[in-house]
Amino acid sequence: MYLLGIDVGTSGTKTVLFSEKGQALASYTGEYPLYQPQNGWAEQDPEDWWKAAADGIRAVLSAVPEAKKEKIAIGLSGQMHGLVMLDKEERLLRRSIIWCDQRTAEEVEQMKKVVGEKRLIEISANPAMTGFTAAKILWVQNHQPDIYSRCAHILLPKDYIRFRLTGEFATEVSDASGMQLMDVKNRSWSSELLTAFNIDRGVLGKMYESPELTGTVHETAANETGLPKGSPVAAGAGDNPAAAIGTGIVRQGRAFNTIGTSAVIYAVTDELRLDMQGRIHSLCASVPGKWTLMSCTQSAGLSLRWLRDTCCGEEIEQAKRENTDPYVIMTRLAEDVPVGADRLLFLPYLMGERSPHPDPLCRSAFVGLSARHGRAHLIRAVMEGVAFSQRECLDVFREMGVDVDCMTVCGGGGKSPLWRQMLADVYNCPVNTLKVDEGGALGAALLAGVGAGAYKSVEEACDAVVQYNEPQNPSPNVNAYESYYQLYKKLYPTLKPIFAELASL
Description:
The chain is α/β, with parallel strands linked by helices and 505 residues long.
């Protein structure tokens, strides 16, 4: 049996073909644009996701032609919280409003009013969020009623790929619990919330656990992708719940930290834990019968990319000459700057924030900038600011009784030894990496393997496949970072009223 993992990301869709033992045999990533019609808005075209997925499937099957002669089980992963709307003819009604979109502040207040802040957390395990799907649905109801009146199906990004592969309208608990329409404790749609938000239950897909099979590849999709007709498609998981499987985080006591466009800390718990202050998210895990705590910093790697694109043209040109990545050059510069970036702090709020400050109005800031600071200081300050933002989230986990004695770091930021050492020092705990880091694609593939019978359980799949490198331990810089972190924590409360006033101008 072969396992195919499809991960619908924000910058591209990654498709990886694995052996039953978890070995990556072929990989393809298809990229696509992000549309920002207004400040704080973020949209993508689901057709771009499908094209990238179909191109990826054809590419990996061409690289391993013998796979078509065997059974191929397919798992799906993808960016969470996106809103995909289809009419009764199964046509797209508009571009998807994706996870980092921040247009729904008024709808968040509407949700609080009609349900109540405490009750919303009790049911959905999370406070009303601009980034979650429910607020996006209400925005379309309020601002595009003609489109909403024609809506027959509401899907999440990865579930649109499922629909194109199988014709099935389905979802699963890990991704759906990020829509804010679920009774998370009971792992089902919430009739109370659907009624309050005037959403017809019929527009939502059938709910599954992550390893369950949801359908098979139909003839049209087989012709478009090269997959054998009838190949089984598992429910899959949201990007971070899938990454948890791909990093082996399936038991309480361990966590992973992905530093990609956004940054997430994710831990599995054996029982549902709620943060009534709404600083972090509680969701259904992709492991049946378990839940998760998850934080999300909106602009982690995005902050460093923004700095690269706006300030580091010289480093980009140098990278071309050296045939390397610009981030390699940027990291070299940051390595020569001391802890604290010579008294320069950065708040990574380019797209507002979710954890631990659910505030769509907050914005990034360099604090302490002086004439003696150069690009190297800016680079280090951005990297440290992201690390401090993650520590704020980890502190909430620890407050809720979920301690972490070792953190697995993945994503683009996890490839940087400097950034990993910062995290180990700021967290004051060992940080390790994976021997094979395929993230959400591997997690989706392993879920498909469980559904198709290659493994007896998710835990067994991870034990058989996931392997770790030696960890990076905290260095003597722990105390120095702690001083800067304590100062960093004072910045958001101080600037919060200024952010609100600025947004009103």
